[in-house]
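User: Please fill in residues for this 234-position structure.
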């Protein structure tokens, strides 16, 4: 006769993974045990405990609410993109109708102010354009090497920067500007080698990291072609 230990069946240790594997391999478990499942209760932070069915319905309601919120955000973004596209077409037509470089820059400035901004400016890297004396637009020039430390600190590997600038940075890019609270910077050129497009606001919170840059990206791609009407590339 076997001793007592031999007569005791080994106890199978259950953990979350074991239970999950069993349920995955026995998909009809809840059908076979429907009555017991209806009687199961799980902890609830407010009600103390609720039925498993109620818990599942709650999860589904939460998932539906999340989906509705995501759909709402997508619709809002689509509306914003449509508005940006309209503004882009309007600006492109306005700039293309300019009779001179100064006229084009003035039109860009007026467009920015119509959006409630302080202004819009273009600074061109002197290494990429022929704007030295006797050009009338030497004030647009900025050395790419002088801008490099700002590019590393503010833009890093991205073509855009949104936020504030310190005194020396403003002096380099916007020496005539006053009361600049925040800016949106966009590099122009395939490798950012042609210059910087700058939109400025008096509000320090107007431009912040994480904001969309779709319009900035399109403008930065469009402007070099328009500038070439009056300035020769190196």
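Assistant: Residues filled in for all 234 positions:
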């Amino acid at each position: 006769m076997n001793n007592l230990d031999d007569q005791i069946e080994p106890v199978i240790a259950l953990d979350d993974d074991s239970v999950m594997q069993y349920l995955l391999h026995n998909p009809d478990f809840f059908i076979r045990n429907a009555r017991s499942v209806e009687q199961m209760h799980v902890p609830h932070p407010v009600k103390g405990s609720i039925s498993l069915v109620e818990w599942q319905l709650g999860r589904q309601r939460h998932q539906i609410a999340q989906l509705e919120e995501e759909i709402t955000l997508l619709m809002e973004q689509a509306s914003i993109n449509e508005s940006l596209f309209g503004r882009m077409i309007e600006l492109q037509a306005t700039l293309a109708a300019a009779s001179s470089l100064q006229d084009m820059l003035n039109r860009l400035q007026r467009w920015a102010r119509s959006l409630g901004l302080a202004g819009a400016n273009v600074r061109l890297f002197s290494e990429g354009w022929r704007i030295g004396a006797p050009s009338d637009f030497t004030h647009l020039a900025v050395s790419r090497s002088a801008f490099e430390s700002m590019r590393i600190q503010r833009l890093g590997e991205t073509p855009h920067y949104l936020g504030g600038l310190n005194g020396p940075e403003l002096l380099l890019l916007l020496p005539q500007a006053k009361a600049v609270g925040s800016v949106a910077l966009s590099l122009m050129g395939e490798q950012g080698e042609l210059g910087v497009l700058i939109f400025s606001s008096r509000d320090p919170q107007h431009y912040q990291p994480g904001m969309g840059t779709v319009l900035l990206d399109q403008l930065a791609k469009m402007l070099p072609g328009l500038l070439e009407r009056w300035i020769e590339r190196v």
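For context: The longest strand covers residues 119-125.
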